Amino acid sequence: MSQREILSITTGRPTSDGAGVSLTRVFGGAAPERFDPFLMLDEFGSNDPDEYIAGFPPHPHRGFETITYMLEGRMRHEDHMGNVGRLESGGVQWMTAARGVIHSEMPEQEQGLMRGFQLWLNLPAHAKLGEPGYRDFAPAEIPQLTLPGGVQAKVIAGTLKGDGIEQPGVVQRPDTEPQLFDLHLPAGSGLSPQVPEGHRLLLYVYEGALRVGEQTLAKGQLARLSEHGELRLHSGSDTRVLLLAGRPLGEPIVQYGPFVMNSREEIEQALRDFRDGSLA
Question: Where are the residues of the annotated region Disordered (predicted)?
Fold first, then answer.
């Protein structure tokens, strides 16, 4: 079988969001069809409370899903549906904005390390105005495996297959069929996870360095890979990487801030709905 090849390597850019939270935008913004069905990935991480303490006060979303994965720290979620949740180190928050959610995400700490990721996952046209939803997953709920060579895997979404393993994650989603794994590869180890043919595949190295075929990804680099073939990962140093894979929707993507729809008219309707209080 042929091997998946790296099509592009990019590096995130420093930015801020919310009420001034410092973060790295790994991808998002221009040409979102390159990463379809994924829209954006942010990495945040700081020991300086001035860079995160203001958090993300109440704001709206429509038309997609947000996945927040906390490595270190505590965040409090509140939304218009009455949900109140606490996202702790190692936990995951999965929110389906669909027709509309207004929520806040605020730090529950005033010192120490705050570190994690937020991923935006598109919804298909038929689900963009569906029912919103929200779920917190505690660290103990997320399957964690130790594989040959000492490789550790947290299976958040989809099913991790390969090397004799078949482990479902805590979230299974239709249409986009996302896979989201946090992989920890000790020096000298390897892994060959199976990704469905035709699915978009992204790798983000956030610690160490990862070899894919003949190329090496350094810390802070994102690789977009071909959509067919076998995936082989090798690490020459202690490495942590996010694996993102999903079925492309192939639909028009029109984004305006926190709204992601299929047409400009739908964006304008979202703005009217937010202004008159009927978004959520």
Answer: 1-20
DSSP-derived letter for residue 206 is E
For residues 194 and 59, give the distance between their C-alpha atoms in angstroms, rounded to a whole number.
37
d(CA 259, CA 129): 12
- Distance (Å, whole) CA 136 – CA 93: 5
Distance of CA 242 to the CA centre of its chain: 9
pLDDT digits (tens, 9 = 90+) for 174-199: 999 999 999 999 999 999 999 999 99
List beta partners, residue 207: 240
Residues 6+ apart with CB under 8 A from 103: 58, 59, 61, 77, 78, 79, 80, 83, 95, 134
Q: Which helix (H) or strand (E) holds 275?
A: helix 264-275
User: In the chain, what is the greatest distance between 2 CA atoms, to the nearest angstrom?
Assistant: 57
The predicted-structure confidence for 208-251, as pLDDT tens digits, reads as follows 999 998 899 999 999 999 999 999 999 989 999 999 999 999 99
- 270, two tokens: 């979202």
CA angle 69, 175, 178 (to 5 degrees): 30
Count CB neighbours of 131 within 10 A: 8
CA 168, CA 156: separation in Å to the nearest integer?
A: 8
Within 10 angstroms of residue 188's Cβ, the number of other Cβ atoms is: 12
State the burial class of residue 50 (Cβ atoms within 10 Å of its Cβ: 0-12, 13-18, 19+). Answer: exposed
Task: Tell me whether residue 174 is exposed, middle or buried, using C-beta atoms within 10 angstroms of its C-beta: 0 to 12, 13 to 18, 19 or more.
Answer: exposed
* Secondary structure letter of residue 17 according to DSSP: E
Strand order through the sheet with 233-234: 190-191, 233-234, 209-212, 215-218
Task: Return the structure tokens found at 91.
Answer: 């936990």
